Amino acid sequence: MIAELGCGNGADLAMLAAEGFSVVGVDRSPAAIAEAGKRISQQFLYRQDLREHFPIAAHNASAVIASLSLHYFSVGQTEEVMHRIRDCLAPGGIFLCRVNSTQDVHFGAAGHRPVGEGQYLVHGQLKRFFDEASARSLCDEGWDVISIQEKTIQRYALPKVVWEIVARRAV
Predict the structure, then answer these.
(1) Locate the Methyltransferase domain: which residues (predicted)?
(2) Least buried of 7, 49, 96, 104, by fewest C-beta within 10 Å?
């Protein structure tokens, strides 16, 4: 089973399901879950904040994807979420994520108030940006890092600089 955290409209889940993978999607937005439900069965979708208990059984996922969904939390909350991600993965399971880079054009969150190192309050929501050290720290405990790369991707029709991390849950 592949779990996507912050599944949005479910486009990636639908593609994976079409290739024969079992999928589960989690998103805190009711609108996102409704859109995803048009692509895959609602029984595989959960509306939930990632800071809460995961709906995925321990050691059940072969892979977890979190593309641009882990930068909305404080450092401590992110560490807790990472422990939950590791716990839901089977030993040797793969974790793939993307997080905002400090090299992104939105770094500094377009003039919003800083509330910590690389952290800004944007319309009442924390937004975090990662340098290489903080990106690497996501996989400090219980992970075998396969790759950490800073990349430019296309997001919302604009270039966006992210850290892309691929890691394996340590056995």
Answers:
(1) 2-93
(2) 49
